[in-house]
Design goal:
The chain is 47% helix and 20% strand. The chain contains 6 helices and 4 strands, in the order H-E-E-H-H-H-E-E-H-H. It has a 4-stranded antiparallel beta sheet with strand order 2-1-4-3. The chain is globular. The protein starts with a helix and ends with a helix.
Length: 133
């Protein structure tokens, strides 16, 4: 719980430092929300989008942008599944090569920026992830 909270918080703060108001959602390996944060001026819809981006990681085991690129053939259909959105901006959270969850970010003007904020958070907590139980 604490690590999920910290990853969400650091994702939001990384984007804030870059000048963007975003939301970050961390889900566990089952797609259940572990932590969610919305910066003060981020749209309320960014919470839903961030969660749905994270869920696409859980479904695919890939970064949401990679999943989107790999499945361009059925992207439109996948967007009709409740709880999923095919957009860049979410990353897997891994421990010892196993995906234990995902972090999704939404609100910056581009999924590549959302992804960078999430990556900065994961990089900051890499040591904690390596030694997590």
């Amino acid at each position: 719980m604490e690590l999920a909270r910290d990853i969400a918080s650091e994702s939001v703060l990384a984007c804030r430092k870059a000048g963007y108001q975003v939301s970050a959602v961390v889900v566990d390996r089952n797609g259940i929300i572990s932590a969610m944060l919305r910066d003060d001026l981020a749209s309320r819809f960014t919470l839903q989008i961030a969660e749905e981006k994270a869920n696409s990681v859980i479904m695919s085991g890939l970064k949401s942008g990679d999943f989107r690129s790999n499945r361009d053939d059925i992207r439109a259909e996948l967007n009709h599944i409740d709880g999923l959105i095919m957009m860049q901006g979410a990353l897997p959270i891994e421990i010892a090569g196993s995906i234990i969850g995902a972090v999704g970010v939404s609100g910056a003007p581009g999924g590549d920026i959302d992804e960078r904020c999430a990556q900065q958070a994961l990089d900051k907590f890499q040591e904690r992830l390596e030694f997590a139980d």
